[in-house]
Design goal:
It is a single chain. By secondary structure, the protein is an alpha+beta fold. The protein folds into 2 domains: 2-247, Aminohydrolase, N-terminal nucleophile (Ntn) domain (Glutamine Phosphoribosylpyrophosphate, subunit 1, domain 1), CATH 3.60.20.10; 266-446, Rossmann fold (3-Layer(aba) Sandwich), CATH 3.40.50. Helices cover 32% and strands 24% of the residues. It is built from 16 helices and 22 strands. The protein has helices spanning 14-23, 51-54, 57-61, 107-116, 127-141, 148-161, 209-212, 250-256, 268-284, 301-311, 334-344, 368-378, 420-428, 438-445, 452-455, 464-474, and strands spanning 2-8, 31-37, 42-48, 67-73, 89-92, 95-104, 164-174, 177-184, 193-196, 202-205, 217-221, 226-230, 237-240, 262-263, 266-267, 292-295, 315-316, 319-321, 345-347, 356-361, 384-389, 432-435. Strands 3-2-4-1-10-9-11 form a 7-stranded antiparallel beta sheet. Strands 5-6-7-8-12-13 form a 6-stranded antiparallel beta sheet, with helices on one face. α4 (107-116) crosses α5, α5 (127-141) packs across α6 and α9 crosses α10. The radius of gyration is 23 Å and the shape is elongated. The two termini are 17 Å apart.
């Protein structure tokens, strides 16, 4: 999971990039970076940490230019987070800045191809080989003074050579002018959008909230299989490169994206609300009843409110979330782990005591956190405790940019699909566990989605060797 913003206008963009990036900080907290181009020099700064600690006033003050990109990173490839692996990346021949969101599935193959050409990949971040392929293809056309046609041909070659999921933003000189360039893989698995402002500036971002904070009006989502070129006060140049088969990631709608973001299928908050309504119908059909609906904050609130409305049951805030607890580390014993959970989520006793509680969450991956939450709530003496998840069981790892573990670590994959709810209820100590069905999810979101983590239907085939490489990088 990562996030990017890109901006081109007539005023210095560095301060604006920081504001846009802060709006999508939820997409990555390990590293941040920004880069600008002033027509002569490239300015790049990146490091480990949050946006506010990396992109300080003193660093931004030195970054001149009216075009630039910025990025927040949560690594899904690479053995660890390092300053070197943070994005954006810069290549000098030709001069290109690049950042992306997603995951390449054939990184090892690309790295070997580049090495055969004498080009060394220096980091474990897959944005670097993607950039080097793009640069190599441009150089193969001509060494400098690249045109719009050159960019379209190079992107076509990227689509041919690079597999996986990726939304990309770059800065380079095209037709003699600094240009913001964006493209998205033919399946459009990872999100991306663009918008304009009254002063003639253009912006691209992983989520529309990045546009909102800087008063840009969203024009559209980045079209899969196409490349767009942006310059101030001019309509974007749009080139269709390869046929598109859009399959946007449904897990973005369930978990990662901010609820106020707009994606192809509308506001994320609306999608979660509709999933909650569908889940309420499936849960009620089992004959269960509840006195109160409680969301595990924060992602689950829209679905929990929708379930409460559909069931005619009160929705209540049952947890106080500590927003200053930071990341928890591996605790040495059960008592420490319990304390760490309560540091993040402290329950309000009267919302649970002697009540039939319907607890709503977005997903269960390893199952560790849900098990601890149920254990903690059992100590508050609810008369019944039911768990409802507004997504299907996660039975398959994601290879397209969401950091899900190998299949052996996915708790739902350990049980037959017909037995998983009963098995997990027993494991957690809940009265019941109910997942939204795959059919229910697709009735809400349609069939033209990537739901591989639920149904195992991978949009881009991944070989056994690629799976082994990806799992090795994650470890």
């Amino acid at each position: 999971m990562c996030g990017f913003v890109g901006l081109i206008g007539t005023a210095p963009v560095a301060p604006q990039l920081v504001l846009g990036l802060q709006s999508i900080q939820h997409r990555g907290q390990d590293a941040a970076g920004a880069a600008t181009f002033d027509g002569k020099r490239w300015h790049l700064t990146k490091d480990l940490g949050m946006v506010s600690s990396v992109l300080t006033e003193s660093r931004i003050r030195e970054m001149t230019g009216t075009v630039g990109i910025a990025h927040v990173r949560y690594p899904t490839a690479g053995t660890s987070s390092t300053q070197q692996a943070a994005q954006p990346f810069l290549t000098r021949h030709p001069g290109i800045l690049l950042a992306h969101n997603g995951n390449l599935t054939n990184t090892a193959e690309i790295t070997d191809e580049l090495l055969q050409q004498g080009t060394h990949v220096l980091t474990g971040c897959d944005a670097e080989p993607l950039l080097l392929v793009f640069a190599e293809e441009l150089r193969a056309i001509r060494p400098a003074h690249h045109t719009t046609d050159d960019v379209a041909k190079a992107v076509e070659a990227v689509y041919r050579r690079v597999r996986g999921a990726y939304s990309v933003v770059t800065v380079l000189e095209v037709d003699g002018a600094p240009t913001l360039v964006a493209f998205r893989d033919p399946h459009g698995i990872r999100p991306g959008c663009y918008g304009r402002r009254d002063d003639g500036a253009w912006m691209v971002a992983s989520e529309s909230v990045g546009l909102d904070v800087l008063d840009f009006e969203k024009v559209d989502d980045l079209p899969p299989g196409e490349v767009l070129l942006f310059r101030p006060s001019a309509e974007p140049v749009r080139r269709s490169v390869v046929p598109a088969v859009p399959r946007p990631c449904v897990f973005e709608r369930i978990y990662f994206a901010r609820p106020d973001s707009q994606m192809e299928d509308g506001r994320v908050n609306r999608s979660r609300w509709r999933m909650g309504r569908m889940l309420a119908r499936e849960w009620s059909a089992k004959g269960f009843e509840a006195d109160v609906v409680v969301a595990v904050p924060d992602t689950s609130r829209p679905a929990a409110m929708a379930m409460a409305e559909e069931l005619g049951v009160p929705h209540r805030e049952g947890f106080i979330k500590n927003r200053y607890s930071g990341r928890t580390f591996i605790m040495p014993d059960a008592a420490s782990r319990k304390a760490a959970l309560r540091l993040k989520l402290n329950p309000i006793r009267e919302m649970f005591e002697n009540k039939r509680v319907l607890l709503v969450d977005d997903s269960i991956v390893r199952g560790t956190t849900m098990g601890r939450i149920v254990e903690m709530l059992r100590g508050l003496n609810p008369s019944e405790l039911h768990v409802a998840i507004f997504s299907p069981p996660v039975r398959n790892p994601c290879f397209y940019g969401i950091d899900m573990p190998s299949q052996s670590e996915l708790v739902a994959a350990q049980f037959d699909s017909s037995a998983v709810e009963l098995a997990l209820a027993k494991r957690f100590g809940a009265d019941s566990v109910t997942f939204l069905s795959v059919d229910g999810l697709k009735e809400v979101m349609g069939n033209e989605i990537c739901a591989a983590c639920f149904d195992g239907k991978y949009q881009v085939p991944v070989s056994e060797a690629e799976v082994a490489f990806i799992n090795g990088q994650r470890r």
